[in-house]
Amino acid sequence: MSEPRTLLAIDHVSKNFGRVTAVDGISLDIRENEFFALLGPSGCGKTTLLRMLAGFETPSDGRILLDGKDIARTPPNRRPVNLMFQSYALFPHMSVRANVSYGLEMERLPATEIRSRVDAILTTTELVPFADRKPEQLSGGQKQRVALARALVKRPRLLLLDEPLGALDKKLRGAMQLELKRLQHEVGITFVIVTHDQEESLVMADRMAVLRDGKLLQCDTPHAVYEQPADRFVADFIGVMNFVPGKASTDGVVAVNGARIAGNVPATLSPGAAAVASVRPERVRLFPEAQTANRTTGMV
Amino acid sequence: MAPALVWLTALMVVPCALVLALAFFRRGIYGGIEYTFTLENFGLVFDPLYAGIFLNSARIAGTATLVAVVIGYAAAYAIAAAPRRWQPVFLFFAVLPFWSNYLIRTYAWIVLLNREGLVTQLLRWFGYTGEPPSMLYTEGAVIAGLVYNYLPFVILACYAPLSRLNPELAEASRDLGASAMTTFRRIILPLTVPGIAAGAVFVFVLSIGNFVTPALLGGGRFQMIGNLVYDQFLTANDWPFGAALAMALIAIMLVVLMAQAFAANRASGHAAEVRSDANG
Is residue B124 part of a domain? Predict the structure, then answer.
């Protein structure tokens, strides 16, 4: 496999609103054809970062390089980047077809090309039967597909999705996660999705970044983030985690109120220092009697 | 419902019916009313002399409407774009002139526009030495007075849809490659047309029947229908003809209001029709 190419480089980007720092010196590389998730609790700066990628906010500091070119100050209508809004922001006075055609009309493409590209994307997103409807006549899932089609038809280098499944009910969300993933493969466009739902990013993303208070905590594959969380916050935020307080020990085992739990001890942790062992619940087994070294006792 | 109906009947339907009835009688020789049925009052309304005044009134009211809509929409747009907590303050200032009397507000324009008024003094202060411009008692002065008096209606009518507009719609348009101007023309303007229409109907209906502003700022040189009705009742003492003119004016206003209601109804009715079609 060849080395994946970097499409978008976020280079020490910060954004201040008055005295509030929404994004604090974040650096990230997003690769070509990747499904990338920006994950974090509300107020962590992920939406501000996304809006800077779309062009609606200008970074206070740092560079945003798309294909090596700094686009940090390019207005939104001049970047090959499209955003799918959380509210979908469909134009209520236009039919589905007119909504999807709008972006291509702005590129002043010939009418025949607009028509064929719109037809193609409406087919891909299974919207052909609804082409003449107004947004208010569509269900939530259909609106979401129109918003997606409207952005995808522009064939952007990068598609940004702001909480794309947030407005859908839980059952539909599961189906749409797979649908989005399938579409991304089909169109071969790099997706950057913003979400506060850790399950969503674990299921869909190739790689993910965990943000908190405007800072980047960890950027890796979902598997790595799940198995080797960078800190306690990430460990707690992603999936379900048990925390067992105790002291670090020499043999890579944390001693906790008599019980010994084997695990990776960071080199920075000297033996005897206060430490917390984190254990995924699915790794805990129950045995009738104490037998292995890696154990603790309890009552059921 | 019932109290509103009683109120409407007593204060609207009965007086209008009385005026309508009046229009079918003859004028008495000494200015009274002769109770014999005739249609000649309505015939006289279409006399070129009076029909001309109707057309002139419509033209002045139409111009005032156009100017008021352009200024009012721009003001409403600026208010809707201001920080949320400042918007009520700006709206308060926009409707503040309503707190003073209509006559006083109109007299203020005389102070501004007369030969040695504030505008002339301002011009002199900038070094103008020629003849003072004649601004008062012109059609422009009448239009300015109408625009000024009814502008708050347009601002309020346009502010409502502008402030309700999801700001992400404009962002989505920019994101899809549209310039700010195209975004305004294709997204913001079409979605706020109902407000513009409501404001325009307000200004037009109130302007075409107005008689104070043309009398004070037009100096009697610009007769509008309102002045004509006023004169028939209070100067010429021809109540039946005055009533016929008033009825013609009401008819024009009704046509304008119904056209607006029909257009608004069709816009929403069409959507409902397609919706039931989709479900069936």
Answer: yes
Which residues of chain A are at the B interface, by a Cβ-Cβ cutoff of 8 Å?
54-56, 75-77, 82-83, 85, 87, 89-93, 102-103, 106-107, 133-134, 136-137, 150-151, 154
Strands A20-31 and A35-39: unpaired
> Rounded distance, CA A192 to CA B96, Å?
49
Query: How many CA atoms does the CB half-sphere of B171 hold within 13 Å?
Result: 18
Could you tell me the CA-to-CA distances from A18 to A48, A57, B39, B101, B174 in Å, in that order? 14, 14, 74, 44, 25
Residue B107: CATH number of its domain:
1.10.3720.10
pLDDT digits (tens, 9 = 90+) for A27-37: 999 999 999 99
pTM (two decimals):
0.83
Which option is the CATH number for A6-233: 3.20.20.60, 3.40.50.620, 3.40.50.300, 1.10.540.10?
3.40.50.300
For residue A86, CA distances in Å to A201, A244, A259 come to: 16, 38, 48
> Tens digit of pLDDT for each residue in A70-113?
999 999 999 999 999 999 999 999 999 999 999 999 999 999 99
